[in-house]
Amino acid sequence: MGRLENKVAIVTGASSGIGRATAKLFAREGAKVVVGARRERELAELVAEIEADGGQAVRLAGDVRSESYAKALVDLAVAKFGRLDIAFNNAGVIGESGASTGVSLDGWNDAIAVNLTGAFLGAKHQIAEMLKHGGGSVIFTSTFVGYSSAFPGVAAYAASKSGLIGLTQALAAEYGPNGIRVNAVLPGAVETDMYHAVNDTDEKAAFITNLHALKRVGRPDEIARSVLYFASDDSSFVTGTAALIDGGLSITRT
Questions:
Q1: Is 185 helix (H, G, I), strand (E, B) or coil?
Q2: Active-site entry in 69, 147, 157, 175
Q3: Whole-angstrom Cα distance, residue 230 to residue 213?
Q4: Which of 48, 116, 187, 207 is most buried per CB count within 10 Å?
Q5: CA 19 to the chain's CA centroid
């Protein structure tokens, strides 16, 4: 019996990377999964893979900046599977980068809208549904950037992702009495499309790799296993946590 047997989960940012790996792992562990992202074709391929592996999944493409999309994902979970127990709010963007004095207001606002407001809107509707069923687990994808380490040129990304930690703590305190746990994972560098877009030369990749105590970057499935811990009853006494899943990046000075 899987660790998420008879559970229903939403995963955003599921078309690639950490979200995709987590959706597949949730399904293998017995959850019925609603997957969301902007890219319809990739979501369709993911659902087909989950079903081919014996799991259950449905998809809904859309933009996490839209509150109606956040509500639609929850409505789909209830319509197809009857309830909602787990939500992994993972969708995110690097956003406009470069010297902060040159970042546009639109660029700043977009990073906040996707990374922070989108996560809040998701949680708003997810928690409202979970309250009807006696509890649940909400997980956010934050980052080490702006938490344990800082880099120039990514102020909007750092600020929006750091905001998720405050949101995690506020929601954990507010809804803990109702049996809802809220946690955030803070990955180090992970082999995703976003990682390769930023670290597009051998020199950049080597620099980032060396920052980690393990002297390698992570894999999406490694982060997914940590998300599974927070989604499952294994973490039944854990809430309000910002968990570094970073290969030792936060403690490395060599």
A1: strand
A2: 157
A3: 24
A4: 187
A5: 6
pTM for this predicted structure: 0.96
Q: Would the pLDDT of 1 be above 80?
A: no
> Does 195 qualify as catalytic in the annotation?
no
2 CB-near residues (< 8 Å, 6+ apart): 28, 29, 30, 31
Q: Return the bridge partners of 35, or none.
A: 11, 59
Burial class (CB in 10 A: 0-12, 13-18, 19+), 24: buried
- Tell me the one-letter amino acid at 166: G
Exposure class string for 58-93: b at 16+ Cβ within 10 A, else e: bbbbbebbeeebbbbbbbbbbeebebbbbbbbbbbb
CA dihedral 87, 111, 40, 55 (to 10 degrees): -20
Give the number of residues written for the chain: 254
**pLDDT tens per residue across span 190-215:** 988 877 787 778 888 899 899 999 99
How many angstroms separate the most distant Cα atoms in the chain?
54
Helix axes 40-52, 17-28, angle to 10 degrees: 30
- Is the predicted pLDDT of residue 149 greater than 90, yes or no? no
| DSSP codes joined into one string, 99-152 | -GGG--HHHHHHHHIIIIIHHHHHHHHHHHHHGGGT-EEEEEE--SBTTTB--T
Backbone CA torsion sign across 5, 17, 142, 206: positive
List, in sequence order, every residue forming a beta bridge with 182; answer none if it has no partner: 138
**Residue among 90, 86, 96, 171 nearest 136 (CA):** 86
